[in-house]
Design goal:
By secondary structure, this protein is α+β, with helices and mostly antiparallel strands. It is built from 28 helices and 28 strands. Helix 3 crosses helix 4, helix 5 packs across helix 8 and helix 15 packs parallel to helix 17.
């Protein structure tokens, strides 16, 4: 019988055969505490599934990934577990019209963040549990039909250690030592959830009265580990939550349908968050242990609102199969920013979207694995990898374009009809397009073909012809790569900017127009005064790569910092970064622009994105012979901006972190040591615990902080967060023995938790240590096929992506990747995809280095 990797065809066959009436799931979590008996730690899971079969006598299967099954009964008949259970599936034969399946199993606790994750807090020894399932890990906790279109109501109950609290999707209460939870609405298996342990829990409530006089009351809760309680700003979490509930009720006209609204911030989480109805889970890094910039608070608010949007897009109405994952993720990604701007204090969130989220999309859409927003998902491994920049950020960008194309009112009315028409059901692409066609009057089929069903990103470039200091013609040229030649209809704004007498670069003309085909003349701008800068896609209405004419690029080289509009600046920075990635702008030129103008950047999120891009430009795209020079320039510039930044400002903090990350020379490392021990101070800069670790990593990487220093810092910060930081810093030390140990811990052993695997990988590959890690390129290609087969898919993805020898940026590494791909044609498609993507990034880096070398 096939294993864990459920195919789309199998899911379709099962959905055509079965419908599920309900689940009763009973978990015994008392084994989570106390000494283990030497065997893998497990918990008892008893599941009763009531389901119908429209072809009596047929055969099907239930899903369960568990070490052992104690008992199975189907319609009152006991089945031999050894005969019907193969480790991943339970065979079901001779089904009746109405059936009851009972499975008593021993399920395994996880250390990989998949299924029932068990975490032991090093600070106080407390144990915390939570579940994470998407796309198909609920079968690691209870027997089920693990596919999104077999929805059903769920009733959970759980036994837990004394003193613990247990939460699930429905409201719960402790009855005679058992936590019992209210039955859910019909939902998919992957959004059921259990959280258990001695969590710190804070409550609030939300109330809204509707036009018909009815009032909706929603109990609110928020939780975290006890060790993080002193840092937990639950009041801000509740503020954003209430603002979001108001916003979505106003715009969706469909009351929140899932009762309570708990939000759990949990340790060692693989994702940003997960939209389990009634019990949303988040990575606990959204609880800030030290000072962070407003960009971090904005990002947290965006994630809170993204997950809340899922209550409608994804939980209430769910895609039938993972092909249409975009029906939830693209909408939630768009709605997160839409609500952030419309409901919270983060009114500039579209700038972050244009600068940060779209950068993720542009990269993903130029990889060999690019795919349409509506993807071809053959199986669960495909589904796991498609939680990517296309499904999220490109999809959200396309929806932003749709709002400009169809109109906001028509778009929202389409959403309202969609919810009411398909509540608690499953949908496909056509279901949404039909309601949007009704409300907009637009041809959604043609729009979908261009935007949702083809891959690739277009580039838009202005062509300007001048006569007598005026525009005689302005056209927009649209290009597409040969691999994905689709030219799309774009609703864009074209802005003309000029330098004022005061030195500001300001917009003086703007036209919205439809760009179609290879060349579109913008007739409305004929006769305008000659511009210093033409910005195609002004206001970021469409999804495209912006290019510049020669005069505009020359203006930006001298006056980028003079652009007064922050969104226009963000768009220009993004365009310049895309040009660097495409080997059209030398990396050293991009770095020079950052050194010249980043200190004037007012938007903190854009500044921090520039810092990240600059590292990539230096480490990946700059000519190797120039890297040392470029690194010294960056460190000098970062220190200059750090000293110039306002005392105590978030810009000061951002520049402090950037300076630490660029420090390589002994005077800079000495300054970091002095800031750590307090012998030197910078006015307004508070070196809190998180910043201490940020300073220690470069010191460790350059041999200026040994194991004893890191042990002393861990003693100072003996927490789960401190342990992750220490592990990363230990792996960063410049020693062959250190690298061998880190490699063995990740590749040859599976004892590390997911969080410590991530930390070790992050420390292992340092740009300054290319020679030290060179021997591991060959070892990498020898190991990954075995690792993919032996490890869980999450850990496999982390290792294959994280340890690819990207910093061994030589043609020989590219040849080694090509050789592996040629020799492993039959490897798992998901594994090949990860290697292909990393290989493409390496080839892009080598092209960038050639471009940069020509700039000498």
């Amino acid at each position: 019988m096939p294993g864990e990797n459920l195919s789309r065809d199998e899911a379709r066959e099962r959905a055509a055969l079965l419908s599920v009436d309900g689940y009763d799931v009973s978990l015994d979590l008392r084994s989570a505490v106390g000494e283990a008996d030497g065997e893998p730690r497990t918990f008892r899971s008893v599941t009763t599934i009531r389901f119908r079969c429209n072809e009596p006598g047929a055969t099907s299967f239930a899903d369960l990934v568990a070490p052992s099954v104690t008992a199975v009964s189907l319609n009152g008949k006991d089945l031999d577990p050894s005969e019907v259970f193969d480790g991943a599936r339970i065979a079901l034969e001779d089904l009746a019209a109405e059936n009851e399946l009972v499975v008593d199993a021993q399920c395994a606790y996880s250390r990989t963040g998949e299924g029932m994750h068990r975490f032991v807090d090093p600070e106080d020894g407390e144990v915390y549990l939570y579940t994470q399932y998407e796309p198909a890990d609920s079968r690691r906790v209870f027997a089920n039909f693990e596919q999104p279109d077999l929805k059903a109501p769920f009733r959970f109950e759980a036994r837990a250690p004394e003193g613990w609290t247990v939460w699930s999707n429905g409201a719960g209460e402790l009855v005679d030592g058992v936590w019992k939870f209210a039955e859910t609405k019909p939902i998919s298996t992957y959004i059921t959830c259990v959280v258990a342990g001695p969590y710190h829990y804070v409550t609030d409530s939300y109330s809204r009265t509707f036009a018909d006089g009815t009032t909706l009351e929603i109990p609110l809760g928020a939780m975290c580990r006890k060790g993080l309680a002193p840092h937990f700003d639950a009041e801000d979490v509740f503020l954003v939550t209430k603002q979001g509930l108001d916003f979505f009720h106003e715009h969706f006209d469909y009351p929140y349908p899932f009762g309570k609204y708990d939000q759990a911030f949990v340790p060692e989480y693989n994702l940003g968050a997960m939209e389990n109805p009634g019990l949303v889970t988040f990575r606990e890094e959204f609880i800030f242990r030290g000072k962070v910039t407003q960009a971090s608070y904005e990002a947290r608010a965006n994630v809170i609102l993204h997950e809340m949007a899922h209550m409608w897009f994804g939980d209430l109405v769910t895609m039938a199969w993972w092909d249409d994952l975009w029906l939830k993720e693209s909408f939630a990604d768009f709605m997160g920013t839409f609500a952030n701007v419309g409901a919270t204090r983060f009114k500039d969130a579209w700038i972050t979207f244009a600068n940060r989220r779209k950068a993720w999309a542009y990269r993903a859409d130029q990889l060999p694995s690019t795919h349409p927003v509506t993807a071809d998902i053959r199986d669960l491994q495909d589904a796991k990898l498609n939680f990517d920049g296309i499904t999220y950020a490109k999809g959200a960008s396309v929806l932003k374009q749709l709002v400009a194309y169809a109109g906001q009112d028509a778009f929202l009315e389409g959403a309202r009809r969609y919810f009411k028409r398909h509540a608690y059901g499953n949908t496909r692409l056509g279901d949404l397009l039909s309601v949007l066609g009704e409300t907009s009057g637009r041809d959604m089929t043609a729009w979908s073909l261009s935007w949702l069903q083809t891959a690739g990103v277009n580039a838009l470039t202005p062509q300007v012809t001048l006569a007598d200091s005026r525009v005689s013609e302005l056209a927009v040229v649209q290009e597409a790569p040969e691999s994905h030649p689709e030219l799309r209809p774009h609703r864009v704004a074209v802005g003309l900017y000029r330098l004022t007498d005061g030195g500001a670069l300001e917009r003086y003309a703007r036209v919205e127009t439809d760009v179609e085909g290879p060349r579109t003349v913008v007739a409305e701008l004929a006769g305008a005064e000659a511009p210093d800068l033409v910005l195609v896609n002004d206001d970021d209405l469409t999804y495209c790569k912006i290019r510049f004419d020669a005069a505009s690029l020359a203006t930006l080289r001298e006056h980028l910092g003079d652009l007064t509009d922050p969104l226009a600046r963000a768009l220009c920075w993004s365009a310049l970064w895309n040009m660097t990635r495409d080997a059209l702008l030398p990396a050293r030129d991009f770095i020079a622009l950052v050194l010249r103008f980043a200190g004037r950047e007012s938007d903190i999120g854009v500044l921090q994105m520039l810092h990240a891009w600059t590292h990539t430009a230096l480490d990946r795209y700059a000519s190797p012979v120039w890297r040392e020079t470029g690194g010294a320039l960056l460190a000098e510039g970062a220190l200059r901006e750090l000293r110039a930044a306002g005392a105590g400002s978030e810009h000061q903090l951002a520049w402090a972190r950037f300076f630490a990350s660029t420090a390589t020379a002994e005077p800079d490392l000495a300054l970091l040591r002095e800031l750590l021990d307090g012998t030197t101070t910078i006015e307004g800069l508070e070196v809190d615990q998180e910043l201490r670790w940020a300073f220690l990593e470069p010191l460790a990487a350059h041999g200026a902080a040994d194991e004893s220093v890191l042990a002393a810092e861990l003693a100072r910060d003996d927490t789960a967060s401190g342990k992750r930081h220490q592990v990363r810093c230990l792996a960063a030390r410049p020693s062959a023995a250190v690298k061998a140990q880190a490699w063995a811990q990740v590749v040859e052993s599976d004892t590390l938790s997911n969080a410590l695997v991530e930390a070790t990988i992050a420390g292992f590959d340092q740009p300054s240590q290319r020679e030290l890690t060179a021997p591991y390129a060959e070892k990498y290609f020898a190991a990954i096929d075995r690792l993919w087969q032996e490890r869980s898919i999450q850990i496999g993805m982390d290792i294959v992506s994280g340890l690819f020898p990207a910093l061994q940026d030589r043609p020989e590494t590219l040849e080694a990747a090509d050789a592996w791909l040629a020799a492993h044609q039959d490897a798992a498609p998901a594994l090949r995809r990860l290697v292909l993507e990393a290989r493409d990034d390496l080839a892009r880096a080598l092209r960038g280095q050639e471009c940069d070398a020509r700039a000498r």
